[in-house]
Amino acid sequence: MRDALPLIGVTSDRSNEAPHHLHQVGEKYVKSIVDGVNGLPVIIPALPNEIDVEKLLDRLDGVMITGSYSMLEPHHYDGPALQPGTLIDPARDAMSMSLIKGAIARKMPVLCICRGFQELNVVYGGTLHQAVHNEAGMLDHRDDKSLTFAEQYAPTHDLELTEGGLLASFGLGQTVQVNSIHEQGIKDLGQGLLIEGRAPDGLIEAIRLDSDDQFCLALQFHPEYRVKENAFYTAIFSAFSQAVSAYQTSNK
Ligand SMILES: N[C@@H](CCC(=O)NCCCC(=O)O)C(=O)O
């Protein structure tokens, strides 16, 4: 049906609330699909061994790879062991990276946010700093848990956009302001990825796949937060929405 709303897969995390395992995603992600894409969000359980990703992608028009407080396991990028007790989510790791590979292979639009940004980089052979704030000359990009939710997700630092890039093409200036809720960050950029923006300390915070016919944009910050109240975030989701509509039309 050509006028059907697009179905957008949204990743979830597998958490242990003994004796249960829950598959959950933050409301702002699924709400941003409604508000920013005019689509229908479909929450994807982190069941990499049970779900046939290809059969799932056959039913979708786009994918959002969400953020999460858990850390990508370092064996995916030959990184050093994490601090004992660090929150990990192996099922989420496997599901996200499988979705990214599968979606890209069929040129399905992909929007990656925060942890999803880091996962995309690792899928393309990149590596991560595990604690950016411990690196010489780098800012502390973590959120201040003593602040309110709104304060934590308010814009906190500049993002210098790459001249001639997709984000710069939105016409909102060469420098915009974004929020920051992350401990890890890109160390080495993956192959075939282009830099779309950097934080004031030079940390890469926006990337996209170097392709003329594949929308794959990844952001270390959180444009899904109150997407309609921030012109830059709105423009990001509008670009995603346009790509999803084009994909939906060409695949029906
Ligand atoms: N755990 C990684 C990724 C950070 C991240 O995704 N933060 C957002 C968590 C809460 C939310 O979904 O808004 C890191 O710390 O770098």
TrEMBL record:
Could you tell me the Gene Ontology terms of the biological process aspect for this record?
A: polyamine catabolic process
Q: What protein name applies here?
A: gamma-glutamyl-gamma-aminobutyrate hydrolase
Task: Report which reactions are catalysed by this protein.
Answer: 4-(gamma-L-glutamylamino)butanoate + H2O = 4-aminobutanoate + L-glutamate
The GO terms describing molecular function are:
gamma-glutamyl-gamma-aminobutyrate hydrolase activity
Entries under Gene3D superfamilies matching the protein? 3.40.50.880
Function statement = Involved in the breakdown of putrescine via hydrolysis of the gamma-glutamyl linkage of gamma-glutamyl-gamma-aminobutyrate.
PROSITE patterns in the cross-refs: GATASE_TYPE_1
Name of a matching Pfam family: Peptidase_C26
Q: What is its EC number?
A: 3.5.1.94
What is the similarity comment for this entry? Belongs to the peptidase C26 family.
Q: What class of enzyme is it?
A: hydrolase
**Pathway, according to UniProt?**
Amine and polyamine degradation; putrescine degradation; 4-aminobutanoate from putrescine: step 4/4
Keywords from UniProt, A to Z, are:
Hydrolase
CDD domains in UniProt: GATase1_2
Q: Which GO terms describe its cellular component?
A: cytosol
Source taxonomy: Bacteria, Pseudomonadati, Pseudomonadota, Gammaproteobacteria, Cellvibrionales
Which source organism? Umboniibacter marinipuniceus
Highest taxon listed in the record's lineage: Bacteria
